[in-house]
Amino acid sequence: MVSFLSDWRTGRGIGFATYSICPLSCFHHLIPWRRVVKHKILIVDDEPTFIALLKEAFCREPYEVLSSSSASEALDLLASEPVDLVVSDEKMPGMSGSEFLAIVRAKYPQTVRIILTGHASLEAAIRSINQGEIYRFFTKPCNIFDLVITIRHALQHQELMKENQRLLRTIKRQSDIIEQLERDYPGITFVKRGARGEILLNEEGGELQKLLSQCKASLPKY
Fold first, then answer.
1. What's the whole-model pTM score?
2. 35-163, which class in CATH?
3. 8 A C-beta contact, residue 138 and residue 115
4. Which residue among 90, 120, 176, 182 sits deepest, i.e. has the most Cβ atoms within 10 Å of its Cβ?
5. Residue 26 DSSP class
6. Over its length of 222 residues, how does the chain's per-residue pLDDT go in tens digits?
7. Helix locations, 2-121, DSSP H
8. Do 158 and 110 form a contact (C-beta atoms < 8 A)?
9. SS3 state of residue 192
């Protein structure tokens, strides 16, 4: 772009200057930015370059990324630091990715499991799915963008499952309380409501009426 330059004291023009506009992304390393970590994921691969590539791809995601170069090392890490999701290569020295994820499935069933392989073998894919109940199977070299999106969706699904389980536990606790109330005060859970939603107490001197009277009497008087 071209800009007209002038002397600020006299207002007279003194020339022109050209400049270009740099996008904000050019300065991302200068802008303070704090990432909120929501999930912890583990990458298991014997190729350091591939691990570095994945970590770079996840740098803007809300993840804490751990890495390991072997299945045995990854199991030791998981024993002290559980994670939400594991991405494992199939072909590694010692234990294979399929065998590793089968152990992860048995010990940490809530952990999402994804496997990568350089051999687009249907047999390997079926074995991985059966042994480790994996979320998805990728062939290497894989589309990194596709992998990032898949992991994002997998963790969102995991969050929904956890929330559903939490709600089910809440409903179970409430149901247990209601059942106990019904045992202690038969008929208390049978409530009639009027046209405006108000609770109707038809039984004068009944168990519900007595219970409400006791609650009212126990309230502090000011």
1. 0.60
2. alpha beta
3. yes
4. 90
5. G
6. 544 455 555 556 555 555 454 554 454 555 444 556 688 999 999 889 989 988 988 888 888 999 999 999 999 999 998 899 999 998 888 888 888 999 999 999 889 999 888 765 666 667 666 666 788 888 877 788 888 899 999 898 888 888 888 888 888 887 777 777 767 777 666 666 667 765 555 555 556 566 666 666 666 555
7. 48-57, 71-80, 97-107
8. yes
9. strand
